[in-house]
UniProtKB/TrEMBL annotation:
It catalyses: [protein]-L-glutamate 5-O-methyl ester + H2O = L-glutamyl-[protein] + methanol + H(+); L-glutaminyl-[protein] + H2O = L-glutamyl-[protein] + NH4(+). Transmembrane segments: none annotated. Residues 7-124 form the Response regulatory domain. Involved in chemotaxis. Part of a chemotaxis signal transduction system that modulates chemotaxis in response to various stimuli. Catalyzes the demethylation of specific methylglutamate residues introduced into the chemoreceptors (methyl-accepting chemotaxis proteins or MCP) by CheR. Also mediates the irreversible deamidation of specific glutamine residues to glutamic acid. This is Protein-glutamate methylesterase/protein-glutamine glutaminase. Keywords: Chemotaxis, Cytoplasm, Hydrolase, Phosphoprotein. It comes from the Bacteria. The gene is cheB.
Amino acid sequence: MPATPVRVLVVDDSALVRRLMTELLGADPGIQVVGTAADPYIARERIKQLAPDVLTLDVEMPRMDGLTFLRNLMRLRPMPVVMVSTLTQAGAQVTLDALELGAVDFVAKPSLDIARGLTDYAGVLTTKVRQAARARVTRIGMQSTSHAYDGPPGYRTTDRLLALGASAGGTEAIRDVLSRMPADGPAIVVAQHIPAAFSGPFAERLNRHSRMTVVEATDGQPLLAGHAYVAPGGAHLRVVRSGARWYTAIGDDAPVRGHRPSVDVLFESVAAHAGANASAALLTGMGDDGARGLLALRKAGAGTIAQDEGTSVVWGMPGAAVALNAAHEVLPLPAIAHRLLGDAAQPPTQG
């Protein structure tokens, strides 16, 4: 027997976008569009009437903006929401706000030639909606609160390197880990599946929530203690070694299994150039990107962590790593920063 289709409510003020998204989603046999709404007030009534599994929500809405509606929804009736965003600086900021409020993921709405653009995104849209139906959502007010690490100082060293990788749910998971790091923590490299217009604002947001200095990575930067480097959207981030120091390397080579930046690409470079002097955590996300890279790190002697299912929005990537026996430990999100720092406190491996 086929699985029950994912029931979706499409919320967008554009009649054209509502029609196109209904057609694109409805073409997937695993998805049923049960209704549409032109604004949040109509959406509120349709949710009561239709009880959808997933909501797609435009960030710019009439009568009530998408963020206000999402905040109310996640407080009163939390459910999986996929935001439909514009690829602009303003769209990036609003989308990151939505992810902080509890939206599972987002898709980028093309600003020009919407009909063709949404058709090109059909595969991404349907995948994210199906994955969102299995996501773990939390009522606003029940999320864990991050606390900066309160252990002993003394991590300012160029001999240790930390790496993080994530996808769906990862913007908040990465923020949680970085918010618990001390100002003198080991250098951290980060790969989050995100478009080019979003990675700069994402790094800026992380910087506001962390004692470390968080920047969007550029090519050839030395990796410094007290700094975190976020892979630019649409590009791969690698770590390379020159002499006694590690540096960033940015590449526009082909996506790996559909992803650029790819967590596998980052983790494999860390395994090759830092080996046992690195530790890494694979956080929430759909698919299996990063699982092979985490296994390469474990084989190279690095400490490896997978986020547990209970605190993951989507236990795809960390679950795939666990299936490969790539993780030394499987930990809840609030424990990951402390464990990474514990690894970093060990004497570095020579050679």
